[in-house]
Amino acid sequence: MQQQLVQLVAAATQEASGVSTRAEMEAFKARVVGPNGSLTQVMKGLATLSKEDRPVVGKLINEAKKAVEELLATLQVKIEESEIAGALGAPLDSTLPSPDAPAGSLHPLSRTREKILSTLRKLGFTVAEGPEVETEWHCFDALNTPADHPARDMQDTLYLPKSFRSADAPRKGEEAILLRTHTSSVQVRTMLSRKPPFRIVAPGRCFRRDAVDATHSANFHQVEGLWIDRNVTLADLRGVLDFFVKETFGPEAEIRLRPSFFPFTEPSFEMDLRSPNLGRLSNRWLEIMGCGLVDPKVLELCGLDPNEWSGLAFGLGLERIAMLVHGIDDIRLFYNNDTRFLRQFA
Ligand code: PHE
Question: Which residue of 72, 188, 234, 263 has the fewest C-beta atoms within 10 A of its own C-beta?
Answer without folding.
Answer: 234
